[in-house]
TrEMBL record, chain A:
The lineage of its organism: Bacteria, Bacillati, Actinomycetota, Actinomycetes, Streptosporangiales. It holds the Pfam family MoCoBD_1. Residues 24-138 form the Aldehyde oxidase/xanthine dehydrogenase a/b hammerhead domain. SMART domains: Ald_Xan_dh_C. SUPFAM superfamilies: CO dehydrogenase molybdoprotein N-domain-like, Molybdenum cofactor-binding domain. GO terms for molecular function: iron ion binding; oxidoreductase activity. This is Acylaldehyde oxidase. Signal peptide: none annotated.
Length: 723, 289
């Protein structure tokens, strides 16, 4: 790395500061930590019924197997306090499963035993010898049955602002009177988290203190939950998580591996490691819930929206209510007087869903933006033009102005790069040189700009360097890098003299690393802590204009400042969201109906961009996820017994390199003076939003066929033509 | 699980004879997946990676004798002219890393109906060489596949090689997957034309309990193809050829695709490969003057 002029560091395409470490294999991930002598390995035995009681559990053979240290079941596991704990990322309604505390089974894949052995192989073998029989009880296994008994999210969600019903005016009447109407149903399957690093934990007890090396997006919440589960003061629990091999939301809650590792470690009085298998990732961790949406749009003949009615229902478990804000974007994305939204959750005997990149928005915007394309077709209007005609500078759901909004500029910038003007509006009219049908489609993207309280410490050292720390996480967006940039710029030190540390509960408290709010929240705290530390250092020698490195050498001892920052009332005075426009080109084989995506082009208004290089990577990575959602990804759940059928990376198909064509992401210039001190709106999730809709709309343009159920499989494109 | 690791072919045959339940492993691209998924737990693994002959290939009369352990990557890079359909199919296998390890012998041993190598072996009338301490026997690929993952190989036999007839006309292969790489075929099809015998060979993958031929399609094409001039088949001929291929399939619905789509796709792949093969045929005729 060359020495970079400090003042210009923010906004520069700095390469990842942790990149060399990761490339060289020097980054230590959760399951790679060495807790010291005596490490044992735990292998989880999971349930094979969707609901019922454990009738018998025979561990004799497992206990007699070589290397086995213990086999834990509900009959011999320690009784744990499981005090109430609801972190921000926990569903407020219901209660988590209390692992190995009773004989009740609530879903397929629920842990019912843990074999602990000297080696992983011995543990896995012992786990295979545990014999469990069940007394099955009636279960809701099919999504359609669950939907028949769908309910509003519940009072605690209402307290968080997520009601079942929303909107304004009289959408039904406005729809009835609208000269042009469309109505359609969209189906989105369950999508599972598939980070390459599976969830894993190493647990060690030492003199009543628990240390956990875990894969998580929020070390402080893992500490809080484990303190509640084990009845410990939080300061007796330490959680360490410096590197995360992809998470996308899967690291927002501690899964069974954490509790089981800690429980087993205490039970056998040795460190214990528990890592989920890929199959267990499908049965133990959360996922984007299956959902069905119905959208009705009414417009006048000029394309002015007159009514939006958007109804959605998504699956949840029977023991917790997972609800997400799927329909909010239909209330603010476009100008429209009469809007009605209705959201319900459908309890089913499955494990609880959880946030997956762009939760809620990815689902709701998909339905809305497919419907907008159908409306454009019904109006015989250009789909971009339809969006621009309904652009608004005021959030009509709250009546307050947007802090900034560049949707129009995004459509213009992305449309130009994409070459939208070359589009023949007639479906099926464009072909490529191989004779494939070519389609162009577009969709809007949106994600709320949020901010949480955050705390950071800046420690300036006599050698003119600085160490800045906070308990945050870097699941991939580049927290290490972007925080180093903010710190270097604020301190006025060269980038290579600043080190940012994260991922340890001993550090100042960061908010959960999610929601696209890390830069806004923690960036503000890092900026404030560095400004305060710099001020203190300069104050010591009484000169405000001196070179900081020289001052630190002169002081000769560390100067430190820990600062906590909080959002003000700006988000009550302004509606703050990132917006974007994404364009897709598809090539469809006219006979085989295979869909390929040669190009995705997106433009985004996200406020200030701290690091255009990592920002672009965030967006293009999000685009690939959107492509997977559009074309290949779905968790097939057997409607008879609620068992995930394709729980492996051979059967759950994420896009591979050979599927990914040209990805182009740009940011429009946007200054947002209102949203937070850094002027950043967040860009971690928006890259996935709208991508599947743009692809579906492009498939319609290529073929004249609407595929309203994801993924867009060959069978669905072929439709009625299959004999 | 016992792990047997013979250093020579003789030792390997002796080991298989002594332990007929031992599962041979070379690249491990199939066997290890099965072990990892806990679909099988053999009492013994027979590691063949130390047996040099399995990685060799050489002429055998008019045919090419391809050692069972020659990796797909080698077939793609070195044998495209001697085994065109098999080379095309090898290119469609998984990813570069897996093509470096996986081999035709593994495909034959596992005998999954979705294996990419099977359709070319059927279409080109390749022969599978089986060996045991009792001796060597050669079984045509067309008689090798007996049922779902069941083959003509006896428990004490190892797959030594495949014998690939010298190409006597154009060969084509096509595969449909749900993504562009790292994917098990939804359906695949191989076509081999034999200008000398004026015959056609077919192979269908991933659309039945075993890899299949389409004998009626072969007879139809042998009669209808313009062997003298290689004229592009008429739409009616192409259509009928595709229909006969689709009719020969015995597909099921599974997570990768529906039976109806598989039949449809096979008719399309059959028509397309026929068109490509006819074009190749004309080119070869032109080249021969």
């Amino acid at each position: 790395m060359t020495s970079t002029a400090a003042a210009s560091v923010v906004g520069q395409p700095v390469s990842r500061v942790d990149g060399p470490l990761k490339v060289a294999g020097g980054a230590t991930y959760a399951a790679e930590f060495d807790p010291g002598p005596g490490l044992c390995h735990g292998a989880i035995v999971t349930s094979t019924v969707a609901s019922g009681r454990i009738a018998s559990i025979d561990t004799a053979a497992a206990e007699a197997a070589p290397g086995v240290v213990a086999v834990l079941t509900h009959r011999n596991a320690p009784v744990l306090p499981y005090h109430e704990h609801k972190g921000l990322t926990d569903p407020p309604e219901g209660e988590r499963i209390h692992l190995l505390q009773d004989d009740r089974v609530r879903h397929q894949g629920q842990p019912v035993a843990l074999a602990v052995a000297e080696t992983l192989e011995e543990a896995v073998y012992a786990a295979s010898l545990v014999r469990v029989s069940y007394r099955p009880e009636s279960a809701v296994t099919a999504f359609s049955d669950a939907v028949a008994h769908a309910v509003p999210p519940g009072p605690r969600y209402r307290d968080r602002g997520l009601e079942g019903d929303g909107g304004r005016g009289d959408a039904d009447a406005a729809l009835g009177a609208a000269p042009v109407r469309i109505e359609a149903e969209y189906v989105m399957p369950r999508l599972n988290h598939n980070p390459i690093e599976p969830h894993g934990t190493v647990a060690r007890w030492s003199e009543g203190e628990l240390t956990l090396w875990d894969k998580t997006q929020w070390v402080d919440n893992v500490r809080a939950e484990m303190a509640a589960v084990f009845g410990l003061p939080p300061d007796r629990v330490r959680v360490v998580s410096p590197f995360v091999g992809g998470a996308f939301g899967s690291g927002l809650r501690p899964w069974a591996n954490v509790t089981l590792a800690a429980m087993a470690s205490r039970h056998v009085d040795r460190p214990v490691k528990v890592v989920l298998t890929r199959r267990q990732m499908f049965g133990i961790t959360g996922y984007r819930p299956r959902s069905t949406h119905r959208v009705a749009l009414g417009a006048d003949r000029d394309g002015q929206l007159l009514a939006i009615r958007h109804e959605g229902v998504s699956e949840t478990s029977t023991y917790e209510t997972y609800a997400e804000e799927q329909l909010g974007s239909s209330e603010y994305l476009y100008a429209c007087r009469d809007v009605a939204t209705r959201y319900r959750v459908a309890p089913r005997n499955v494990q609880t869903p959880n946030d997956m990149r762009g939760p809620g928005k990815v689902t709701g915007v998909h339905a809305l933006e497919c419907a907008m394309d159908e409306l454009a077709a019904a109006l015989d209007m250009d789909p971009v033009e339809l969006r621009l005609r309904n652009d608004t500078i005021v959030d009509q759901s709250t009546g307050v102005p947007f802090s900034s909004r560049s949707l129009r500029e995004c459509y213009q910038a992305a449309g130009e790069r994409f070459g939208w003007s070359r589009r023949n509006p007639r479906p099926g009219a464009m072909r490529d040189e191989r004779g494939r049908l070519v389609g162009y489609g577009c969709a809007s993207a949106t994600w709320p700009a949020m901010r949480q309280a955050a705390e950071a410490r800046a420690r300036l050292l006599p050698d003119g360097s600085a160490v800045v720390s906070s308990s945050s996480s870097d699941m991939g967006p580049g927290t290490y890098t972007s925080m180093t940039q903010v710190a270097a710029e604020t301190l006025g030190l060269p980038l290579e003299r600043v080190r940012f540390e994260l991922g340890d509960t001993r550090m100042p408290t960061a908010p959960v690393h999610g929601g696209s709010w890390t830069m806004a929240s923690l960036g503000s705290a890092v900026q404030a802590a560095c400004a305060e530390a710099r001020r203190r250092a300069l104050a010591e020698i009484g000169r405000a204009d001196a070179d900081l490195a020289a001052v630190l050498r002169q002081i000769g001892e560390p100067v430190e400042a820990t600062v906590r920052t909080e959002p003000g009332d700006e988000l009550r005075r302004y509606s703050a969201h990132s917006f974007g426009a994404v364009f897709a080109e598809v090539a469809v084989d006219p006979d085989l109906c295979t869909v390929r995506v040669p190009r995705l082009v997106g433009a985004y208004g996200v406020g200030r961009v701290v690091n255009p290089k990592t920002a672009r990577s965030q967006i293009t990575g999000g685009m690939v996820m959107g492509m997977g959602m559009a074309l290949t990804e779905r968790t097939e759940v057997d409607p008879r017994d609620a068992r995930p059928v394709n729980s492996s990376l051979a059967d759950y198909l994420v896009p591979v390199n050979a599927d990914v064509g040209e990805l182009d992401a740009v940011f429009v210039d946007e200054e947002d003076p209102h949203v937070n001190p850094l002027g950043v709106k967040g860009l971690g999730e928006i890259g996935t939003v709208g991508v599947a809709a743009a692809i579906c709309n492009a498939v319609y343009h290529a073929t004249g066929r609407r595929v309203r159920e994801l993924p867009v499989t060959v069978e669905r494109v072929l439709g009625a033509a299959v004999r | 699980m016992e792990f047997l690791s013979p250093a020579t072919w003789e030792e390997a045959l002796a080991a298989k004879s002594a332990r007929p339940d031992a599962v041979p492993i070379m690249g491990g691209t199939d066997v290890m997946v099965e072990l990892n998924f806990d679909r099988r737990r053999p009492a013994a693994l027979l590691d063949l990676t130390r047996v040099p002959e399995l990685r060799e290939w050489a002429p055998d009369g008019d045919r090419l004798r391809l050692g069972a352990g020659v990796p797909y990557a080698v077939i793609v890079d070195r044998l495209a002219d001697r085994a065109p359909a098999l080379a095309l199919a090898s290119r469609a296998v998984a990813s570069p890393q897996i093509r470096n390890r996986g081999s035709v012998g593994g495909n034959l041993g596992g005998a999954s109906p979705a294996g990419d190598a099977h359709p070319p072996l059927l279409a080109t009338d390749a022969v599978v060489e089986l060996a045991s301490v009792r001796g060597v026997r050669r079984v045509p690929a067309r008689e090798f596949y007996l049922g779902p993952r069941r083959t003509a190989r006896s428990d004490d036999e190892l797959i030594a090689a495949v014998l690939l007839p010298a190409p006597a006309g154009p060969q084509q292969f096509a595969k449909i997957g749900t993504r562009n790489a790292m994917v098990i075929a939804v359906a695949s099809f191989a076509l081999a034309l034999d200008a000398g015998r004026r015959s056609a060979g077919t192979g269908i993958g991933s659309a039945g309990p075993t890899p299949l031929r389409a004998p009626e399609a072969e007879e139809f094409l042998a009669a209808e193809f313009d062997w003298a001039g290689g004229r592009p088949p008429s739409p009616a001929v192409a259509q009928e050829f595709g229909a006969l291929v689709a009719a020969a399939a015995r597909p099921i619905d599974d997570v990768r695709g529906s039976a109806a789509y598989r039949r449809h796709a096979l008719s399309v792949l059959a028509r397309r490969t026929l068109g490509w093969a006819a074009a190749d045929y004309r080119r070869e005729m032109a080249a021969c003057g």
